[in-house]
Amino acid sequence: MNWISNVVRPKIRSILRREVPENLWIKCPDTGQLVFFKDVEANQFVIPGSNYHMRMGATARLKAMFDNETWYDVGIPPVAADPLKFRDERRYVDRIKDARAKTGMNDSIKIGYGKLEGTPVVIGVQDFDFMGGSLGMAAGEAVVKGLELAVEKESPFIMFAASGGARMQEGVLSLMQMPRTTVAVQMLREIKKPYIVVLTNPTTGGVTASYAMLGDIHIAEPGALIGFAGARVIEQTIREKLPEGFQRAEYLRDHGMVDMVVHRHEMRATLARLCRILTRADAAKSAASAGAEPVLPPDAVDVPTQASP
């Protein structure tokens, strides 16, 4: 046994080796450019060179929207963890457990209540990293709860949609969330408060067929994929070649499906302006009250969420 080669050298290498985080660099899907993760994070997950909009987590999205990066997390009613006892290659409960560990969320939608440039609003964010942002019973409850809170507080509701569609592991119980959320949207409409939907990449399937396309205003992020069925399925069905850019945000805006395409850096100001216009709020009054804390909803957590820097 060579003591120097087998013992001393590996120990020296282990001392000198630097641990490199896995997400230190991000590759731009559009140009292939490697970008430092911290630079992308500081730029609201927009690639600085190409302006490609990466997916943005729920907490980061709420932090970018609310005044002083502070909001109240709204409690979501509990639902059955695995109502159908579903199993494919793995058990559904194991998939849920892994998704919760990966994202730090209970399910695919997070609801927050706070102020947006002085205007009290309820914001829902769908996180694609949680099982593809799929719509299950818990996500449906979150949307309904957010809309009910907006009705109670008589405030606008803003929904950031990102989903691959209904959650197959919950079967018909997942599909039932489509009419439930539709009814909840109608409740907000009856009190004449705005429901604004921001379509992010991607928004497809049953989510597009329900609450994602029921907004008073539809905003899309640049390049976002928006549709119900996939382009390949549509081509095989109609047996025709689809036009360039089909199902992308800019194409849908040009054909009347989306009201506007807004860069992520301008999203906060655009949403705040729309909320003031649609609620006929006095801009000066809103600015004067920007520093005030919103009233804590009865089923929110006891303390506001202060996003870490």
How would you portray this structure in words?
With 309 residues, the protein is of the alpha/beta class. It has 2 domains: 18-54, no CATH class; 55-306, 2-enoyl-CoA Hydratase, Chain A, domain 1. Helices cover 37% and strands 16% of the residues. It contains 12 helices and 10 strands. It has helices at residues 3-16, 37-42, 58-65, 92-103, 137-153, 171-175, 177-190, 205-208, 231-238, 249-254, 264-278, 283-288, and strands at residues 25-27, 34-36, 70-73, 109-116, 119-126, 157-163, 195-203, 217-220, 260-261, 305-306. Strand 1 (25-27) and strand 2 form a beta hairpin. Helix 5 (137-153) runs parallel beside helix 7. The longest helix has 17 residues, at 137-153. The protein is globular. The termini are far apart.
Q: Quick one: overall form?
A: globular
Based on secondary structure, the structural category is alpha/beta
Gyration radius from CA atoms, angstroms:
22 Å
User: How would you characterize the largest beta sheet?
Assistant: 8 strands, mixed
Number of domains as seen in the coordinates:
2
Order of helices and strands: HEEHHEHEEHEHHEHEHHEHHE
Number of helices: 12
